[in-house]
Write a structure and sequence with these properties.
Layout (H helix, E strand, L loop, with lengths): L2 E7 L13 E2 L2 E2 H10 L5 E5 L2 H9 L4 E3 L7 H16 L5 E5 L8 H8 L9 E7 L13 E4 L5 E5 L14 H4 L3 E10 H8 L5 H6 L3 H6 L5 E4 L10 H9 L8
Parallel strand pairs: 1-4, 1-6, 4-5, 7-11
Antiparallel strand pairs: 2-3, 6-10, 7-10, 8-9, 8-10
Length: about 250
């Protein structure tokens, strides 16, 4: 099957403006994400609406397309980019992977775990999660949580800690149950991406500011792969300083 990895990237951010162009050990974050994605997939493209990001991707030799500035989500931007790339290159892709632009430490193994969900022919959309470690804060609203079924489908995503444990001290929640952190990776069949890109925003999506709730609210199932590999996304400048200064993350190049 033909796979296209798309990295939707925008310059504006409430908490971290210009995040894609921040330097991490001598390379911009968008270049780090692109290079990590290229270790797993032969076709990788950045989708942006900002000339500064566009020019940076051209500078390091990556593939990039300019998309509309009116998209309400990264997935909507991915669908426009897919159509541009397919028309430009006269090719048709079977699976489209949405790689978040703030995941410069993503591992190729995690990307392949995500694609493994499509070994099940019934999978239309897949995503990746990881168990919260004891030192991680399950109450951090920047880290969306997910509850899953016994056959690894998502039940719900929330910025709050779910499930809620009635009658239990919050300090004991992590020890009482397993909490799953959502990693911002999605993979779609081409038809599924076409379908979700045509959906209007839903009330749950607007409330939580999580686009995947649009799909669940419309009855579309999301297959979940559980990774054992660590994941570190960048939400604030302090995240980069913490990860690099404490030696948690190191790049070979």
């Amino acid at each position: 099957m033909k796979i296209l990895a798309i990295i939707p990237s925008r310059y504006g951010s409430t908490r971290f403006p210009g995040k894609p162009l921040i330097q991490i050990d001598g390379k911009t974050m968008i270049q780090r994400v692109y290079e990590r994605s290229s270790l797993a997939f032969g076709h990788v493209c950045v989708a942006t609406d900002d000339k500064r990001i566009f020019d940076e991707v051209v500078r390091f030799g990556g593939d990039v397309v300019m998309t509309s500035s009116s998209h309400k989500s990264g997935t909507d931007r991915c669908y426009e980019a897919l159509k541009i790339v397919e028309e430009r290159d006269s090719v048709r892709f079977d699976i489209i992977v949405n790689v978040q632009g703030d995941e410069p430490f993503i591992l190729p193994e995690q990307l392949l775990e995500l694609i493994g969900c499509f070994d099940d022919s019934g999978t239309k959309i897949a995503t990746l999660v990881k168990k919260f470690s004891p030192e991680e804060d399950i109450f951090n609203t920047n880290s969306p949580k997910v509850v899953i079924t016994n056959d690894n489908y998502a039940l719900y995503f929330s910025r709050n800690a779910i499930p809620f444990q009635r009658g239990a001290d919050q300090k004991e929640w992590s020890g009482n149950m397993t909490y799953y952190k959502h990693i911002g990776l999605y993979a779609f069949t081409r038809d599924a991406l076409n379908t979700v890109s045509r959906m209007e925003q839903t009330s749950l999506e607007k409330a939580e500011q999580l686009e995947q709730l649009r799909w669940l609210e419309n009855g579309i199932k999301i297959k979940v792969a559980v990774t054992q590999h660590p994941s570190y996304s960048i939400d604030t400048p302090e995240d980069i300083a913490y990860l690099t200064s404490n030696g948690i993350i190191r790049f070979s190049v």
